[in-house]
């Protein structure tokens, strides 16, 4: 089966290698194998696969990773446009 | 858990701001929503612990669980499908048994309790308001503070003598592991994406291989999510739209006619269903083989094929204007429905979806406008 790839021109992921301590938590939390570790530092192995879930940035203690996290969901984005708020995923929640 | 990434039903604010500031549930850390938890058929008894009796759960998925899952998938009645938050025993766990954290969406809970072979474990269910792991993490309800709250409320520290929690990897967008440690003294370790890999992860000394770390979106995973897309067909707004179309079709020079409503309105409803099938079912299933990367483009292609087929099949009974309405309308609706499937996919980035929407929406709106105009024109001559 061909590998599914999505639009990657607008990905907001940034890695500041200078701050990286090489703990490897970004590799552990990324569901898209975006990061690798080489020479005791993280590197972007496949930046275009990033889905901007924000797991890496939230778990990066030295703050070496930046990303605009959100949900890759058309309905959420439309809702955000209409209400002028952050795009929020409904997910059937009442909260 | 991995195959339950479907999102987007009712509005809810995202706790992005709080997430960036390192805290999680933040201002919306309301007390757990009051919820009438019903009887739990999966509870088969209790296990005595130093912190009191803990309910023991079955590893079996019963008929009632299957029926409930089916209803949720088809959007029939139950948006809320929750497990009471707290600690549960699977098998006969002791003080050294692993603690597996999960969401209180029942489909997720069922997946975990049925995937662990004969492993003895504690299941720590946090209150995600009946939302799956991935979406709850994205919303910030599956977060370090909520985990700590349940750890403290269940007096877990008196039940186990280690200080480790195994978290589903897909909770990481909402859980800062270091914060969980601060808040409850337990070390949060991210386990595999899929519950089925938990036995292998535990056997490998809490290490995941790259395969356990990656989300997949295989045909079977996409297939279980398509009923939700199709459920739009009996959504309240769609029922209103059908009524509007039938009413518009009924009106003619000589007043209102029921047979005219059926003759001219029913085909429109049929075309809409064909388009939903094309964009919400066929496109998701054929996703990797369709051209382009944008879901809207993939959906427009499938919709185009469906429209061409429908026009060819009914060519003798279609006026040119009605044919144009089909050829413009079906791809437009199919493209839109396919674009909505981005919310069910674990491979789409918000920046990419926004880019795709800015490109595709003008075409979808224009094609829909052409379709409506052509349909109205086809009605004029009669």
Note down, in words, how this protein is organized:
The complex is a heterodimer of chains A (95) and B (382). Chain A is α+β, with helices and mostly antiparallel strands and 95 residues long. Helix content of chain A is 21%, strand content 13%. Chain A contains three helices and four strands; from the N terminus they run βαββαβα. Mean pLDDT of chain A is 87; it is low at 91-95. Chain B is of the alpha/beta class. Chain B has 15 helices and nine strands. In chain B, helix 10 (219-230) packs antiparallel against helix 12 and helix 11 (236-250) packs antiparallel against helix 12 (258-286). The longest helix of chain B has 31 residues, at 350-380. Residues 1-31 of chain B have low confidence and may be disordered.
Comma- or semicolon-separated keywords:
heterodimer, A: 95 residues, alpha+beta, Alpha-Beta Plaits, two-stranded antiparallel ribbon, two-stranded antiparallel sheet, globular, B: 382 residues, Rossmann fold, 2 domains, 9 strands, 10% strand, elongated
Q: What is the straight-line distance between the termini of chain B?
A: 54 Å
What is the annotated CATH architecture of the largest domain in chain B?
A: 3-Layer(aba) Sandwich
Strand content of chain B: 5-15%
Please mark out the parts of chain A with pLDDT under 50 across 5 or more consecutive residues, or reply none: 91-95
CATH topology of the domain at 14-69 in chain A: Alpha-Beta Plaits
Summarize the amount of helix of chain B as a percent range: 40-55%
Structural class of chain B: alpha/beta
Number of domains of chain B: 2
Kindly report the average pLDDT value of chain A: 87
Number of helices, where a helix is a run of at least 4 consecutive DSSP H or I residues of chain B:
15
Q: Tell me, what's the shape of chain A?
A: globular
What is the helical fraction of chain A, as a range of percent? 10-25%
Taking Cα atoms only, what radius of gyration of chain B do you get, to the nearest Å?
A: 25 Å
- Please state roughly what percent of the residues of chain A sit in beta strands, choosing from under 5%, 5-15%, 15-25%, 25-35%, 35-45% or over 45%: 5-15%
